[in-house]
Design brief:
Blueprint: H1 5-22, H2 26-32, H3 34-48, E1 55-62, H4 66-78, E2 81-86, H5 89-98, E3 103-107, H6 115-125, E4 131-135, H7 140-148, E5 153-156, H8 161-170
Parallel strand pairs: 1-2, 1-3, 3-4, 4-5
Helix pairs in contact: 1-2, 5-6
């Protein structure tokens, strides 16, 4: 399993602090006192509500409402996913071109390019990227259109936390 870069930094900092405290080199701490460090790290992991497992794939959250976008991105980051958050489709496309996503979660109704148009654009650029469409204003024709355009899933706001995570993991 991979270890998230941020967690890896915390592990290194912790080992260095133990080495400083005991005035021993880090290598000695890593070899001779890893059980102490492991216990501390496990406790730290539980306290933070995080797992040391890391999924190196990138999830992108695209929503014009910061109060929706940021909590979704935080939930994904806490699950160990590399995550980007964009306030609009145009920003998401720019970020995608620099570093492609593996899964996109997008709102439908946004200023400028809609989430459905974003989905079509990403399909043109990256044929197999799963797109989870999220909306607070969904209707049957919109849902049908999203699936015809290749949506992986269609979720209605407010999001149910576990359902959202289930769909992310399935994607």
């Amino acid at each position: 399993k991979h270890v998230a870069p941020a967690i890896r930094r915390h592990m290194t900092d912790l080992l260095e602090s133990i080495a400083d405290r005991d005035r021993r080199p880090v290598a000695d701490v890593e070899e001779g006192h890893i059980s102490t460090a492991s216990c501390i790290l496990a406790n730290m992991s539980l306290e933070l509500g995080r797992t040391l497992a890391y999924d190196p794939t990138t999830r992108s959250v695209v929503d014009d409402e910061e109060a929706i976008r940021e909590p979704m991105a935080k939930v994904l980051a806490r699950q160990g996913f590399a995550t980007t958050a964009s306030p609009d489709s145009e920003t998401a496309i720019g970020l995608f071109e620099a570093d492609p996503y593996d899964v996109v979660v997008t709102d439908i109704r946004m200023p400028g390019m809609s989430g459905l148009a974003l989905q079509r654009k990403l399909r043109e650029d990256q044929a197999r990227i799963p797109v989870i469409v999220v909306t607070g204003h969904g209707d049957v024709p919109m849902c049908v259109q999203a699936f015809q355009d290749g949506a992986f899933s269609f979720l209605e706001k407010p999001l149910h936390h576990q359902k959202f995570l289930d769909e992310i993991h399935r994607a």
